[in-house]
What we know:
The complex is a heterodimer of chains A (about 325) and B (about 190). Chain A has two domains: about 5-135 and about 295-310, Aspartate/ornithine carbamoyltransferase (Rossmann fold, 3-Layer(aba) Sandwich), CATH 3.40.50; about 135-290, 3-Layer(aba) Sandwich (Rossmann fold), CATH 3.40.50. Helix content of chain A is about 40%, strand content about 15%. Chain A has eleven helices and ten strands. Chain A has helices spanning about 15-35, 60-70, 90-100, 115-120, 135-150, 175-185, 215-220, 245-250, 255-260, 280-285, 290-310; strands at about 5-10, 45-50, 75-80, 105-110, 125-130, 160-165, 190, 210-215, 225-230, 265-270. In chain A, the strands form two sheets. Chain A has a five-stranded parallel beta sheet, with helices on both faces. Chain A has a five-stranded parallel beta sheet with strand order 8-7-6-9-10, with helices on both faces. In chain A, α2 packs across α11 (about 290-310). Chain A is globular. Chain B has about 190 residues and is an alpha/beta fold. Chain B is built from four helices and eight strands; from the N terminus they run αβαβαββαββββ. In chain B, the strands form two sheets. Chain B has a five-stranded parallel beta sheet with strand order 3-2-4-5-6. In chain B, α2 packs across α3. The two termini of chain B are about 15 Å apart. In chain B, about 40% of the residues are buried.
Amino acid sequence: MTNVKTGLLDMSDISAVEIRSLIKLASFFSEVAKRPIPKVPVLTGKQVVTAFFEPSTRTRLSFEVAARKLSADVVTFTTATSSLTKGESIKDTALTLRELGGNLLIVRHNCAGVPHQIASWVDIPVINAGDGRHQHPSQALLDCYTISQNFTLTENDFTGLEVVIVGDITNSRVARSCVEAFTTLGARVTLVAGPTLLPAAPVFSANDRVSITEDLDGALATADVVYLLRVQLERMDKNAFPTVREYRTRFGVDRRRSALMKKSAVIMHPGPINRGVEIASDVAEQQNVLIGDQVKNGIAMRMAIIYNLLTSKYEL
Amino acid sequence: MAERERKLAKPGGKVFSAHSLVMEPTDVSRALIRMAHEIIERNHGVGDLIVIGLQTGGVPLATRLRAHLEEITHSLVPLGTLDVAFYRDDYGIRPVLPEEVTLIPCDLTQKTVVLVDDVLFTGRTVRAALDALADHGRARCIQLAVMVDRGHRELPIKPDYVGKNLPTRRDEMVDVSDQGVALGELVDK
């Protein structure tokens, strides 16, 4: 985030100090949401452009709500109705959005690296709202904020917290960003998945705070946070696992598995959830499931990210 | 200097150097008691009154002022705090990040709000505070109490209750703290 010109592209660009500053800033925006008029005029006259080259409901809406709560104007670009269908390139599209007066571009694309590429073409900050299987930094930041609210921590230091991330690691940009964010703040992360759901290249083995297991029951017993990933049928090799039922048996959290968890432990999920696959429907209704908090905190954290990129020429 | 300047002063940069103590701590205490009486007189009591301190310099003064109001009238007066970072007009000119919490305990509609700050200077913080308060309801009226009015207003804003009117040069700094009120300037370390 120190580089205001390029924006928020990768979790690896952000230090622990910056994550903690953003969490603090987000907590101020959570307070704004509780006011009779839940909106502040800081970004009056600024234009935020969301360019989603891949379908999305919650991330795009969350960014748009966040920008509007800061009084920015929001311009929405969607591929289906754009000149991309006439063959206009991503570069020309991005430059056009910039020339239309955009002060900030929020980009999602199903290919890794597109937001980075766009950031190199335009002279305004770009937020990566998810690129292929690569990164989804705003999700990781809002998850850090949600965890910080649910545990008694000093200065948002995650040292001592055990986070278990379960599911389709290999296809998950959320997992990549979250592993970096959680370990940067000091947590230990255990990835639970079968070999077909883990990336072939040893992307996580360089991080000594990360361990990998196939034993979900064992991992649940010591976890403080159980982070379930969505089974991404649209990105998956046909042969990643034989049947949905087998996935549920090995990696789904049902009532029996939920009972193995510590009393203080919480369950998180980036959404949208597949009920009856990664999480049983009755478990999804439990008190310790923070999915609703994640959505609410997503607005506050995205307000913090946008605010930081558009108002401050200064380091956090 | 108001609390925010104190915090923004970079280590190794310029530091505040006092050349005269304008008010002793006891003078500040006496001024607060007088202002409490003025507030009660003007509003015929403290019914529907709420005291709101501006973060960060106004909050300790607001807390003390409210204690005096409660002591004199033997009734309860609510206290709030307000950080105006999201309403300022100087983004990009200097770092504008909220420092402390905003906590307004009730809807302000039909309330008499006494806004408290340590130093009134250009009036821009108060302008931002007025906008912020409007988002918390339509107050019946908003009154402004400051410990020091140092002049040099850039906006048509006038305080209702003043601890001390202090003529200053524009480049001087006024520091309000537990040690009283000091006049000085920023000097190289």
